[in-house]
Write a structure and sequence with these properties.
lectin, Mannose-Binding Protein A, Chain A, alpha+beta, four-stranded antiparallel β-sheet, 2 domains, 9 strands, C-type_lectin-like
Length: 304
């Protein structure tokens, strides 16, 4: 131990030689320390910058999240408001639909009532028209009867009971439905029993008078084919050549349109009533076996 101490003391050069080294070492250590400090400072600055950047990023994220949350909250509120409005609209639509259904029902009821009223009016109008027709018929009948009163009075003096006097000639026209219809031959036989014969219509004046008479007393419910009256004309000798019972040829006939047409061996002539039609178009040819009413005529002796 003493040697060691001695050695350190005995060699001062060694001590002197070690001093510069030690100082240099300290400087190096100081330099290293300064470098480390600066490095630490730089690292600290960098860390501070990084932390600042991270703080900014986190702040941005937080702000973004806040804005997003606020937008999300606003969106939820908007969605709730929209749902509330939709619910209100649905309720209003439901009310409107129910109102429309009720209105349609009410309209259908009103339309049904109106249709019933229209039908009733049409029915009443039809009845009024029927009444008017019956009234016109009755008035026409009354007028016809009044016009024939003088003829009946005069006929009672010169004609058989039930016969009418027209232009100095007595006529028998069976208007009553209680009288049975007859064939052409049977009708002529009836007339002959009273010294008469089937009527010969050989003038327009006579045609107008007879047509007006049978039209006045015509029964509208009767079928047209059964409403005719036999007259004294036929073409049994030669088809298409019509003659009166006295053998004279028929020169002026008052045939209906398309008549005579000889459908089914129609050889006898009849006159028909024609309401609101041409009185000069009222003759038809018919089978002589067909049953109709008839018109007899008889010239009376007025010398009395």
């Amino acid at each position: 131990m003493e040697d060691a101490t001695y050695n350190r003391l005995a060699h001062p050069e060694d001590l002197s030689d070690d001093l510069p080294f030690t100082a240099n070492q300290d400087e190096q250590q100081v330099s290293l320390s300064m470098g480390r400090f600066e490095s630490l400072v730089n690292h600290q600055k960098m860390l501070t910058v990084i932390l600042s950047i991270l703080a900014v990023i986190l702040l941005s994220i937080d702000i973004g999240l806040g804005i997003y949350y606020r937008n999300l909250t606003d969106g939820e509120r908007i969605v709730k408001d929209i749902n509330s409005e939709v619910a209100k609209l649905q309720q209003a639509y439901k009310i409107a639909i129910n109102s429309e259904i009720e209105l349609k029902k009410e309209l259908a009821r009103e339309a049904s009532i109106q249709q019933m009223t229209i039908w009733m009016l049409e029915h009443q109008k039809s009845r009024n028209e029927d009444y008017q027709k019956e009234s016109d018929k009755i008035l026409s009948l009354i007028t016809g009867l009044k016009s024939h009163i003088p003829l009946l009075k005069e006929g009672c003096r010169h004609c058989l009971p039930g016969w009418n006097l027209i232009n100095s000639i007595c006529y028998y026209i069976p208007f009553s439905d209680d009288i049975s219809r007859r064939t052409w031959e049977q009708s002529r036989d009836y007339c002959k029993n009273f010294g008469a014969d089937l009527i010969q219509i050989n003038s327009r004046e006579k045609q107008l008078a007879i047509h007006a008479l049978i039209t006045t007393y015509h029964n509208p419910s009767l079928q047209y084919s059964a409403s005719g009256f036999w007259i004294g004309a036929r073409d049994v000798e030669e088809e298409g050549t019509w003659k009166w019972l006295d053998g004279t040829q028929l020169t002026e006939g008052f045939w209906n349109f398309g008549e005579p047409n000889n459908q089914g061996n129609e050889d006898c002539a009849a006159v028909y009533p024609s309401l609101r039609k041409n009185p000069f178009k009222s003759w038809n040819d018919a089978p002589c076996t067909h049953v109709l009413k008839w018109i007899c005529e008889k010239v009376q002796n007025f010398s009395d």
